[in-house]
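Weekly structure sync, notes
Attendees: PL (lead), two postdocs, one rotation student
Agenda item 3: pending single-chain targets
PL asked that the sequence for the first pending target be pasted directly into the notes so everyone works from the same version. It is reproduced below exactly as submitted, 513 residues in total.
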Amino acid sequence: MTADRIIPKSFGIARRFILAIVIFSTVLTLAGTCLQLYIDYRKDLRDISRQLTYIETSHIHSLINDIWLFNDRGLEAQMKGILALPMIEALRLERKDGPELAVGKATSRHLITHNIPLSYQHLDKTVPLGTLHITASTGHVIQRMKERALLILFTQAVLIFFISTFIFLLFYQLIGRHLAIMARHAAALTISTLHEPLNLERNQSPQRAKDELDLLVDSLNSMQAQISEYLQERRQIEDTLHEQATLLEDEIAQRQQTQEELNVINSSLEERIADAITELRKKDNLLLQQSKLAAMGELLNNIAHQWRQPLNNIAVSIQTMQLLSKAGELSQEEMDRDIKAVMDIIFYMSGTIDDFRGFFIKDREKREFVLQEVVEKTLNLLRSALDDKGIMVSVTAEPDIRAIGYPNEYAQTLMNILYNARDALLEHQVAEPRISISIHQKESRSVLTVSDNGGGIPNQILPQIFEPYVTTKGPSQGTGIGLYMAKTMIERNMGGTLSARNTAEGAEFRIVL
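Predicted structure, written out during the meeting:
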């Protein structure tokens, strides 16, 4: 399936965005139109009511006099005069003593009837004369409301159309087409295409300030570059480790042969012994480098394991954004949240690379360092190797304990001890494996102890535990040079002491510096 087939049209999000604006604008326009028409309708009704009130105040007195005087001709003339007023369709005079008199005819479907009781004041008495029924039409009001509604709706529809079209084009130009490019790039991304950067069709002028899309593109390109660089470095390291492992086997065999030859050399051959010792020291340095390479390989495995879940999370986030974008359900808020989640993972992975690079850099000279910082950096690199095995690590530290030495070699020594503790816990299948690290100061010297509940070191091996090629593991699991190199770095290079002893639960290593 090609990238073009799985990516939706570039303006799919814009279409939904504009549809929402049109719907909202239409509802708002209808509501506003209804409110305006209702207000106008109430105003027209008040006008009709005022006209009826005017009739009652200005014509009723003369009507009462004509009724009292039985002046039917005058009554009819006055009622026709009232009928000539706007919106009045019919009048009907219902007399108490006399025939009913009516003028006009109600033809409209929308009518208002107003009843006015008539009475005459005679000798301090109120004499009821009848009731005047006035029928007014509201048809013209309704017609005017319809015409006004059509005019408002037409003008608003035209306005909404032009505004929506402008917003649609603006959204597509600024965001939509770039989202489509990024989605196609992400869908087509493979290991073989990591070197191809993502480029948007935008003005690349240096005067233009960077926005969120530029930052996202830079972050994605940076992530691709880091992943590509990591894969290349990993291939190179694997090749180097393979070569060094072969050399290590040859050197170990040669060292054993040299050791056998030294046992039979005559004690008088001092010059040959001195040469052999010089050769051994060179091989010790080589072993130190090979030990670092082996530790580097172990760390690479840990980092690769630590990266599986973040890389999987990145893949899931990208696929989710693709699916939501294809379905047209990716909002700006969701896109910002997913991009932030991916960026947090990338910064975490970048920090892991920085820790790995700095771990094996050889310190040029001794310097003061904080023990707890070295412990935390080492545990961060070994976290997956311990957590995945269910090993609980606890650290108890007095504040600001410092030492003078080579912090990277100190960290490598601690890493070697932790690996041995892990292997012992796994070998003895401890139900609740744990490692305890304690940092304190004693007589102006820093003391770090690492203890476990893995059963301890066999008594016959404990006195020789720091000698080269001495190991508690099988031949296929250990070379026996790790603790030898650790003791060399602590005691020869930094002037400290490294010791080991058994406790009631397991082994305890102690570094004094």
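Discussion points:
- The radius of gyration is 48 Å.
- The chain has a mean pLDDT of 78.
Action: rotation student to compare against the earlier draft before next sync.
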